[in-house]
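Just curious. Protein, please.
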Amino acid sequence: APSQRASPRSLHTPAAGPAYCMAEELLADFMGSLLIVAPAVIGMVFAYWLYKKVAKISLYPRVSSDDELLMRRMESQEFNGEQDSFQKMRQIYRDIQNGAKAFLAAEYRMCVAFIAVFGFAMIFVVAHVDGGWDFKVGTLTAFSFVVGGVTSMVSGYIGMMIAVFTNARCTMSATLTPESTAWRESFNSAFRGGAVMGFALSGLGLLVMYFLMCLYVSAFEVATEAVKLFECIAGFGLGGSAIAMFGRVGGGIYTKAADVGADLAGKVVAGIPEDDPRNPATIADNVGDNVGDVAGMGSDLFGSFAEATCAALVIAAQSVDLVGAGWDTLIFPLYISSVSILVCMATSFVATDLRPVRNEASIEEVLKTQLTLSTLGMTIVMYPVCAMFMPSEFYLGPKTFTSTCVDGLVSSKCVTMGPLSAFCCIAAGLWGGLIIGFVTEYFTSHTYSPVREVARATETGAATNIIYGLALGYKSTVVPVTILAGIVFIAFSLMDTYGVALASLGMLGTLSTCLAIDVYGPICDNAGGIAEMADLPEGVREKTDALDAAGNTTAAIGKGFAIGSAALVSLALTSAFVTRTTVLERGVNMLNPVVFAFLLIGSMLPYWFSAMTMKSVGVAAMEMVKEVKRQFDTIPGLLEGTPGHGPPDHARCIKISTDASLREMVPPACLVMSAPIITGAFFGVEAVVGLLAGGLVSGVQLAISASNTGGAWDNAKKFVEKGGLFLDMPKLDENTGEVIRNVDGTPVLVSTRQRKGSECHKAAVVGDTVGDPLKDTSGPALNILMKLMAIISLVFADFFMSINNGQGYLNVPRQNI
């Protein structure tokens, strides 16, 4: 802990002597550090313990110890068939692992080159400040950027490897007897696999960030240079978010190129089932589930944690009162994340031990209970933490509370009842995120009426299905945006921009649990694909399908949570930028031509970005379809399933997805990263504020709409496949096939169940295919657009201010209101 810490405790004990004061201050520093380091280390140790639990699951079937029974089974044809299936399962498991490693190796080579080049450029750009050069700030910011990028890559790698390690073990657990054991163990394996990433990422991110702060504190005098210190730390958030951009965009293009290509070539063109072993694109599809929804989601939420923390620290550092209150108060945002690890760890045992899954009906209930309990637990423990570290009164600015907040001055910067205000901001983020998640579930789960209406629209074809899905997506933005507006109003009213940053950290307060549930989905999806490709018994596939269906629902909750938190994080970063550049001291006139012009440009960027990513998926999917068709045409007996036919070339399909994703992810990333830099350098800081505001307001609504539309189409298809859709159809005569009519000539109608292969199912498949890039590529990637533009603006704020006092190279005047 930093020796420069101004301890408030020592100020109240002058008679105790310098030795006593120093001992008390060291003890306080030690306890503060312990409250951050200990939960982070405990979280990583817990992740390792969960990994060992998963690793105990053997990929070889259990056999009876009864020799006579064993011999009888080994002589049976059924036993030999089972062994063939398990051997296939292990081979598919290895193929998925190798495909995942190949993609990560190729992607991370590009990321390392990007980190090296961009980090070197940052040294000089960030060092260019008003009045000259400050290479200490430039070098330390660039180093933070490198550390953040590497930490994000490590987090993504851990998540990817544990997901492809757990998938076959989830399949294996579903083969156990009795049924209740199969349900419990298959769910627990997938949930624990997801929790490995959740706790490893949360602990690693927190630990690295705190050690980076302790390292940097020796280079600055905290009492007078806290702003510079935390601006350098902001590079950590930029590094995490930059890698998240490549992970989300590249991973999204990979997974949907494989998924859409496999669906079109398999279900639509060749008429074979999903995950059919004859389809050459199935391994790439299963690899893609992990690339986008595990590595991409992990990097995304890691970036949110790092950026929200950096925003809160930068805003706090500009408050004389918070800096004077001591190091513990200044780094209060980190305590939110550290406590959340312990709370999520305690509640995780509810899902796996106290109230485990026993049947299909209990899966969704267990997962949603897990989220609710984590939110409730964080709410209970946060007030004592706020009371321990937050001062009762302080001013969020360069003056003190006693000198500024006098004569009845009412301002959100004048904070009274500090602990209660901080708690309310955090609680608003916590419960707002949970509500947004459950609203997202309502619009994307086929348990509820909106998705069933979309499924019913398939009666008249794919066109009406798509129309209903688009309408659902637009409507689904109403409640989440209203909740976000309420959170911002409460937080800003209580603690100004600092309150917004705390609310964003509150929404991320259940990060470990949310990541565990997010990663659970792709693991179960892979488990189902492995079961089908390995020709395991139908009962195994039924269990993995049920687990996957619950995973789809919770994945939608996770996407809602990620979008909501990204919106708050973006606003918090924009607030930090505004505070740092003192734009609001003179006010931002929205009718200023430059500000309004860039407000429109910022609102346009999410559409431009989405167009690029959507088209990239289309281009890559076309390549995949052509390759699958080529293999069907050139490998004799492959499509027909003739015994002894040549194997499909999975490696070729994996290479197509990998090459396409790496090629296509560069232009969208360049668009997002260059937009704020060009705007700030040429048009000034007020134009940047307009750009960020437009991108946030437009991006959050487009992201919610795209994700929910795609999710609704996906689950509408699943609703048809499970036989949930009934339509009144004309009754046909069993002998002649003619329509039976009533006396008045009208046809006799009977309620007919629609299943796979029906016209309704074909229409639903079209909607699902169209929605795939919306829900898994463009929608989630818009999170990064909102956050990355804002963190770049914050890190380069001093550079922008050094150019004609923040007016840009074009010397655009900063107008007063």
User: Anything to note?
Assistant: Strands lie at 128-129, 132-133, 393-395, 414-416, 725-730, 749-754.
